[in-house]
């Protein structure tokens, strides 16, 4: 378990481990309006007046504000979580007020780990007593890690109302016999990658539907076995058209025609932000889309990515440039960086991020944007050889360097844009060029990707974009594995939370050495390599240093 995840888990346990009554979430909200007071308490630890929520443990430790928010344990869904022997129970209204039952099979609510069956139901008054005084519905003390909250009547009513609203969610795309999913493709997406991604998705869904299905009653988990309703998977391809400012309305209409449980995979070009924003606004999980420049934010929830893509590459290059400059005598340190990219392409975003990282550290950055028809040779004309050159270019421009001798002894290039292992970098450039590589090395990932590649071969799927297709297959596998643990609790927020919880235990992680998503994190792979060409023929990629998390 990584350090961030461990600290968050420890904080959660220390705040509400034995809790049974206080809600959970995490959101981007403005100052709480009266109608959102319950949500603000639940998600942000703010009471109706805008003041921090106050709580205290039995041992006298005080919590306030975000540290006291219910979300830290009960999660955004309100359905709690389970880690090892520690269980956080669900606290949406129907789980609080259900009648006493002998087993989960006797209940008419979806099974989730930690649900209590053998206790008296809560009322609004009993809930208020539990929150304020730590006494459960049967008059017994709650666990000693459950804080006691200082909530007035108005705030308590707002919190209770929010717990009730958590049971009144939008249509989730789950019917009695079918689960609906979408994949989204932007108009400027690479057509070769599009074909490869859709080939994988359609074959995967066909495989999932290869067994007979029928309307079956929801079966519950017992101590020995877990069952779930068998449902067919249906894929809806939402292909966007026109300019980005029209995409939100197109997606709104698509979702209105057919609600979906989640968006799986997907393919973007230069601008994924409208899709990301739509998924956040409509509360639809967007699971691992294939995009070179994902949306960076510290407050969104529904969109998760395998990595930061080109933005991670810029971080890797910046760290290497700064480390090497710091290791040299001041008089010999390189202080100027030239960047070359096509105007309007994703390399421009990488160049902007790298410039921002270096300019504050005493570097001069010279950016050279190529307009349509401009040659790379022209951008490199008169570049001082002692400067660092960074290339944010696609394979056709990389191949065009065959007509230009290396103009610098220190060259970096984007692996994602330049073709990764199959980059057409000319032989004359391979001795001076290093590549930002946000994946595991080929020999390191071979076993992890062989299963997917073997499946492609059996299904006769042409490998036209191996990394995109492997990521698409991985996204489908993660979805299937997570759904098997949801049983029949098809709640969008719960789906994202279960992916977060389960991801670090995944063994087959494709191109990535390790994937983790702690609460609040959006990027599952955090690092990468700087690689160079090795061997007598300079054809093999070799790590120029260890795996780096910048």
From TrEMBL:
Key words, A-Z: Heme, Iron, Metal-binding, Signal
Q: Which residues form a coiled coil?
A: none
Task: State the InterPro entries in the record.
Answer: Cyt_c-like_dom, Cyt_c-like_dom_sf, Peripla_BP_I
Q: Where is the signal peptide?
A: 1-26
Instruction: Decide whether keyword Membrane is in the record.
Output: no
Q: Which PROSITE patterns match?
A: CYTC (PS51007)
What molecular functions are annotated in GO for this chain?
A: electron transfer activity; heme binding; metal ion binding
- Where's the Cytochrome c domain? 33-167
Q: Is Iron one of the keywords UniProt gives this record?
A: yes
Protein name (record): Cytochrome C
Instruction: Name the species this protein comes from.
Output: Burkholderia ubonensis
């Amino acid at each position: 378990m990584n350090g961030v995840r461990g600290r968050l888990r420890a904080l959660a346990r220390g705040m509400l481990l034995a809790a049974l009554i206080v809600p959970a979430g995490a959101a981007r909200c403005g100052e709480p309006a009266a109608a959102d007071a319950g949500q603000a308490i639940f998600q942000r630890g703010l009471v109706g007046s805008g003041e921090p929520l106050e709580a205290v443990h039995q041992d006298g430790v005080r919590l306030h504000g975000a540290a006291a928010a219910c979300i830290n344990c009960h999660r955004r869904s309100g359905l709690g979580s389970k880690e090892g022997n520690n269980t956080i129970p669900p606290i949406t209204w129907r789980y609080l007020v259900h009648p006493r039952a002998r087993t989960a099979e006797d209940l008419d609510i979806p099974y989730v780990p930690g649900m209590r069956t053998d206790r008296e139901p809560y009322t609004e008054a009993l809930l208020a007593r539990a929150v304020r005084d730590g006494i459960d519905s049967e008059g017994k003390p709650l666990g000693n890690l459950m804080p006691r909250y200082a909530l007035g009547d108005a705030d308590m009513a707002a919190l209770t109302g929010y717990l009730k609203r958590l049971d009144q969610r939008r249509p989730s795309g789950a019917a009695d016999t079918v689960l609906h999913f979408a994949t989204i493709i932007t108009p400027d997406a690479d057509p070769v990658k599009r074909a490869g991604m859709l080939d994988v998705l359609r074959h995967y869904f066909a495989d999932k539907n290869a067994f007979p299905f029928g309307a079956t009653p929801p079966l519950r988990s017992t101590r020995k076995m877990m069952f779930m309703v068998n449902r067919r998977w249906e894929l809806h391809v939402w292909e966007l058209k026109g300019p980005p400012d029209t995409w939100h309305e197109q997606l709104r209409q698509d979702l209105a025609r057919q609600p979906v449980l989640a968006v799986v995979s997907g393919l973007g070009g230069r601008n994924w932000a409208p899709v990301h924003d739509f998924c956040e606004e409509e509360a639809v999980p967007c699971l691992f889309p294939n995009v070179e420049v994902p949306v960076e934010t510290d407050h969104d929830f529904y969109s998760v990515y395998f990595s930061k893509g080109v933005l991670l590459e810029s971080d890797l290059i910046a760290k290497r440039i700064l480390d090497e400059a710091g290791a040299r005598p001041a008089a010999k340190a390189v202080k100027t960086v030239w960047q070359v990219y096509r105007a309007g392409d994703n390399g421009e975003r990488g160049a902007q991020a790298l410039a921002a990282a270096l300019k504050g550290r005493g570097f001069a950055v010279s950016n050279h944007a190529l307009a349509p028809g401009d040659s790379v040779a022209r951008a490199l004309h008169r570049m001082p050889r002692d400067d660092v050159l960074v290339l944010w270019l696609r394979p056709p421009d990389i191949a065009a360097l065959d007509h230009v001798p290396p103009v610098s002894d220190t060259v970096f290039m984007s692996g994602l844009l330049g073709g990764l292992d199959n980059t057409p970098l000319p032989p004359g450039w391979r001795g001076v060029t290093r590549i930002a590589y946000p994946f595991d090395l080929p020999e390191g990932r071979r076993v992890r990707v062989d299963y997917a590649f073997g499946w492609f071969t059996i299904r006769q799927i042409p490998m036209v974009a191996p990394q995109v297709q492997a990521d698409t297959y991985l996204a489908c596998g993660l979805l299937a594995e997570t759904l098997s643990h949801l049983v029949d609790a098809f709640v969008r927020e719960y789906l994202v939370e279960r992916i977060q919880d389960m991801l670090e235990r995944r063994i087959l992680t494709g191109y990535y050495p390790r994937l983790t998503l702690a609460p609040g994190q959006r990027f599952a792979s955090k690092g990468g390599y700087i690689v160079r060409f090795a061997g007598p023929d300079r054809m093999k990629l070799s790590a120029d240093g260890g795996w780096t998390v910048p």
